[in-house]
């Protein structure tokens, strides 16, 4: 598999692979080496981060690049509202359909998943509370359905809700927790999206959206949020990562910050690269600010 799909050039990938094998960079590979440093894949001494860390960093950078295509996620919902208004105004559109009956909505999603059990992605509010309890959904899971749900932290505060979610997760109905804003949304097979017709009115029904560009955009946004989310039983950052973030905010250099948390500079920088990727930060200063905004510090 090539790392080009994750943003590396051919020269950068060839150099990174050679460094992993214990090789070194030639003078002609200066630009590739600088590029790897900027990406956080090698340190100042040209020591590469481990492959798992490198792939994770590249995945998160790619997800953030997709996310930055939107100045704010609200633009997506503005477009949803525009399509909804177009529908209510009676203008012809094949891209959106209003579904007023919750049972019709559940049946429609269920039918799509039974016909082609590919992928079901959801930002969780609660428009479809009974979908997962139905036998067809469980059969779709058994048939290879990839089901992923992102929850807000408050959604799993209650012990009984957390236990129920853990049980679903253990059966292959995957769940993660995100600290980012959560809007109700579902995606079926990356080809159809469902969103509230009016987020402020639970009785307003749901929009079924087939607009290819919008559905693709929503799928990319979901993928980015999923990559940045954390597992049900994991805090957003572990104790060492929290120490690294504190050190990052307090010390002007990596060397001083690494000493303060008793890590090698190489290990410290690997943690920083991973955290920056998860936060979508372009600099260490921005990483500290974003960490504070998300309650990681």
UniProtKB/TrEMBL annotation:
InterPro entries: Sig_transdc_resp-reg_C-effctor, TrmB-like, Tscrpt_reg_LuxR_C, WH-like_DNA-bd_sf. Residues 234-291 form the HTH luxR-type domain. This is HTH luxR-type domain-containing protein.
């Amino acid at each position: 598999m090539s790392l080009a799909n994750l943003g590396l050039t051919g020269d950068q990938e060839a150099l990174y692979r050679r460094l992993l094998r214990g090789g070194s960079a030639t003078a002609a590979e200066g630009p590739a080496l600088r590029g790897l440093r900027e990406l956080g894949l090698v340190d100042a001494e040209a020591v590469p981060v481990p492959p798992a860390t490198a792939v994770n960093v590249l995945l998160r950078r790619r997800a953030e690049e997709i996310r930055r295509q939107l100045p704010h996620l609200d633009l997506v919902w503005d477009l949803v509202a525009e399509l909804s208004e177009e529908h209510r105004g009676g203008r012809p559109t094949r891209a959106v359909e209003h579904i007023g009956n919750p049972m019709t909505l559940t049946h429609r999603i269920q039918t799509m998943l039974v016909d082609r059990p590919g992928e079901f992605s959801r930002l969780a509010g609660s428009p479809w509370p009974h979908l997962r309890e139905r036998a067809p959904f469980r059969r779709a899971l058994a048939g290879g359905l990839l089901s992923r749900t992102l929850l807000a932290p408050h959604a799993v505060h209650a012990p009984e809700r957390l236990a129920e979610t853990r049980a679903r997760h253990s059966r292959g109905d995957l769940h993660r927790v995100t600290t980012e804003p959560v809007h109700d949304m579902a995606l079926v097979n990356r080809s159809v999206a469902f969103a509230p017709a009016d987020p402020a009115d639970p009785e307003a029904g749901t929009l079924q959206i087939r607009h290819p560009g919008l559905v693709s955009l929503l799928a990319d946004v979901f993928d980015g949020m999923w990559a940045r989310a954390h597992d049900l039983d994991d805090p957003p950052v572990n104790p060492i990562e929290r120490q690294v973030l504190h050190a990052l905010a307090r010390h002007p250099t990596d060397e001083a910050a690494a000493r303060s948390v008793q890590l090698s500079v190489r290990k410290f920088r690997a943690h920083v690269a991973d955290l920056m990727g998860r936060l979508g930060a372009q600099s260490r200063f921005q990483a500290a600010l974003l960490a504070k905004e998300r309650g990681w510090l």
